[in-house]
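Appendix B, example 12.
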Amino acid sequence: MTRYVVQRLFMVIPVLLGVTLVTFFAMRVIPGDLAQATLGENATPEAVAAFREEHGLDDPLVVQYLRWVGGLARFDLGDSFRGADQPVLDEVLRRLPVTFELALFALFFSLIISFPAGIISAVKQDSLADYSARIISMFGLAVPSFVMGSLMFTLPAIWWGWIPPIRYTGFTDNPIDNMALFVLPGLALGAGLAGSVTRMIRSQLLEVLRQDYIRTARAKGVAGHLVVYRHAMRNALIPVLTVIGLQVGVLLGGTIIIESIFTLPGLGRLMIESVSLRDYPMVQGIVVFLAFAYVVVNLLVDLTYAWLDPRIRYS
C-alpha cells in the first residue's frame, strides 16, 4: 500500500501543474490593466508603472508563471495585491475553517438524507416510499445549490419575517450560534449531493440484493436487516464512496456562491472578492489549494476500498 500511496502522491504533481497553467493564463486574459484596476482610475502613470514594476507585471508571462510555480514549490503562494505584506497562504488558512465547516455540514446532511432514502428505496422497490425517494432525489439534482440557498434565505423572511443569522460567530466564541449559521447553507449545499448519492445507493443495492450469496443468506434464515446492512451494503458502498469523493469537489466549488448568499467569511467569498478586485495571487492560491484538497480526498477514498473489500490489493 505504501508504494501505491507514493505513486498517487506523485500523480498529484502533473494535476496541480495543469491547474496552475489554466488558472494563471485564464486570469491574464481578462480585459483591462491590472495595475490601473487595482490602484483606481485616478492613479497617476508613475504610480501605475511603479506598481507593475514592484509586482513583476512587466516581465513576460512565462517568467511570471515560472516565478509563481517556483514559489509554490516552496509552499509560498505569494502576496496579495490588496495590501503590502499580506501572504496569500496566511489569508487562505484564516478563511479555511469556515469553508471546511460548511463542507462538513453539507456532507453530513447529504449522508443522513441519502443513506436511509437509498436503502428504503432499494429494499421497497416500486413502492410509494421508493417513488417518493426517487422524486426527492431528482429534485435535489435538478435545483442548483445557489437557487436552493436563495430560497432558504428569502422565503422564511417573506412567510414568517425571520432571516437566518448573518453575523459570523467563531466556534470557540459561541459553538451553538456558530453551528446555527451553517444549518441552512449546509442543507442547501448538501441537497444536490444527497440526490446523486441516493440514486447510486439504490442502483448498487438493487444489484447486490439479486446476487446468489444474498439469496443464500436469506435461505439460511438470516434476518432481513442483517442481510441488508451486514452483507449487501458493504459490497454496494465502493461505487457510492467514489461518487462521494468526486462530489467533494462540487461541495468545495459550491461554497463560492453559498458563502456569498449567507455572508460566510470563507474561501468562496474570498474568491469572489478577489476576482472582482483582480487580485491574481489570491485567486491562484485559492484554486491551487482547493485542487490539492480535492486530490487528497480522492486518495483517501481510494484507500478505503481495501477496508470495504479485503480482496482489493494495492500493488
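The chain has one domain: 88-308. DSSP finds 13 helices and no strands in the chain.
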